[in-house]
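Handout, section B. The chain below has 166 residues.
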Amino acid sequence: MRGHSVAREGVMAGIIGATAVAVWFLIVDSVGGHPLYTPRVLGTALFSVLGPLGTEGPAVHIVAYTIFHYAAFIIVGAIASVIVHWAEREPSVLAGLLILFVAFELGFYGFTAMLADWLPIGALAWYQVAAGNLIAAALMGIYLWRANPALTREFTQALDGREHGA
């Protein structure tokens, strides 16, 4: 094991990704004249999925969604960190990660389109979600790449199909 923690890297990657998406939507919402629109609407949708809406106000929806948002990204960051560290022993895992990433992104956009029909997410467009996710994925990837300098060699091995140490 190296001198750095898989868990710490996962949490940091998740925080970076969640913050990137939050800032992206703060910019998009502010340009549209409605700061915090996206977390408010998604928080309301989250509450409607969890049960009937009560008397809680928009601030509660924003805070609850923000907690959910960061928790989800930390879980994704932790999974990515585990995979990156696993790739130290088995570089071919990275080729699978690339395929999984593409499939996940396509599935997520489809899920977003489906939610648009079911929930009151209004003007939240798939391309805005796509841009936010790609920004988050890029920043999380850069962080993990810099935290694991051997990743370049491992990724090259994974794409070349060479065995570890060959």
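Note. Residues 58-86 form the longest helix (29 residues). Compare this with the example in section A.
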